[in-house]
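Lecture 7 notes: from sequence to structure.
We start with the chain below.
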Amino acid sequence: MITFNTKWLATIIMTLSLPLIGCGGGGGGGSDDSSPTATQSTPNTTETTTEEDQNTGSGESEIAPEFNLTSIQEVLVSIDISAQTTDKTYLSVCHLKETDTNVAEIDYENCLIRSVVEDGTFSGSFKAAPHFEELAVAIWFYDTAQDPIESLISRADMDTGEVLIN
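Predicted structure tokens for the same chain:
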């Protein structure tokens, strides 16, 4: 008569030995396999490596000190429209989106800067990712009778790290 403990022990032994069933022995005597086996010969060559060959791993790369290992760039934005107005205005620096008519327009839902411009001047910054091709700038007047001042910031402008709008 098998007791519970013996059944449990037998189950564990069967479970642990199950993976070993698929591991058959390889080769050995008594094999009836008559297919020829191919042998590969390796030519005796001597390979010389230089110190330069050994130092090609990424752990040995030299990086210029001015390279900061980031693809995001800080872009300074300076606005001076004091010659046009010293009234309070509102600034938006946003991405562009294409409309159904394939005309780009300012995407006010996707802005990098939203700020009040006091006395016609503003100084701030945003982080430009490499995929930013062009950004739109809109300076809105609180007096709705005046049209907003609109301009574009190109990738070349962002690459300089500083944008001046006046």
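Points to note: DSSP finds three helices and seven strands in the chain. The two ends are 98 Å apart (CA to CA).
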